[in-house]
Amino acid sequence: MIRKDIPLSQLQLEVLFTPSDIESAVARLAQEIRLDYRNKNPVLVGVLKGCFVFMADLVRALDIPLEIEFMSLSSYGLGRTESSGKIEVVQGLRGTVRDRHVLVVEDIVDTGITVDFILRYLRRRRPASVGVCALLDKAAGRRVDVPIDYLGFSVPDRFVVGYGLDYDEQFRYLSGLYCLKEDG
Ligand code: IMP
Fold first, then answer.
1. Strands 101-109 and 43-48: what pairing?
2. How far is the centre of ligand 1, averaged over its atoms, from the C-alpha of 37 (Å)?
3. 104-149: per-residue pLDDT in tens?
4. Known catalytic residue at 166
5. What is the dihedral angle through the alpha carbons of 145, 83, 23, 21, rounded to the nearest 10 degrees?
6. Theoretical Cys-Cys bridge with 131: which of 71, 112, 149, 162, CB 3.0 to 4.6 Å?
7. pLDDT, tens digit, 9 for 90 and up, residues 29-48
8. In the structure, how many helices (H) and strands (E) does the chain have?
9. Contact 180/8 with Cβ under 8 angstroms?
10. What atom of ligand 1 comes closest to residue 159's alpha carbon?
11. Collapsing DSSP states into helix, strand and coil, what is residue 85?
12. Does the CB atom of residue 178 touch ligand 1 within 6 A?
């Protein structure tokens, strides 16, 4: 596991998915989601910050009437590359989702703790339905079983950056997805 205290200069990037792999996956996901949500004017709820690039591409590929909300959470305890299990809402939903069809948009599901937390948060607000779309699934990290209704890629138990995902706030701007590895 990559630790937070490793300097950026000692890290290398290994290509996991190219921009064109990602474009194909987003197009496929959009097709699946469009079929299910075409006439539902869904609310897509993105989890900041990691979802911002994926969300932007997904909504444009979807091209159906929909609304967008963002939530910001913080998790405390362990370093940046491991989830602590304790989550707090930094910014919750601004609008209501009561009787609406909601689709959670996540960059990566690792332990599942974040998605589990969001699903509980949303269900308390009585939506008509809640689905989950995740770009990446790191199933080896799972501690809580959560549903993923629309999945881009399964990934190995490695730390992934790029396309919105960060290591210590770096690499979010990269157009591809990469695994981090230590030099040498
Ligand atoms: P979970 O609660 O463990 O499922 O973690 C979900 C959140 O942890 C994601 O939304 C990411 O912000 C972060 N995360 C987990 N694994 C990675 C990774 O490999 N790269 C970047 N962020 C990750």
1. parallel
2. 26
3. 999 999 999 999 999 999 999 999 999 999 999 999 999 999 999 9
4. no
5. -90
6. 149
7. 999 999 999 999 999 999 99
8. 3, 9
9. no
10. 19
11. coil
12. no
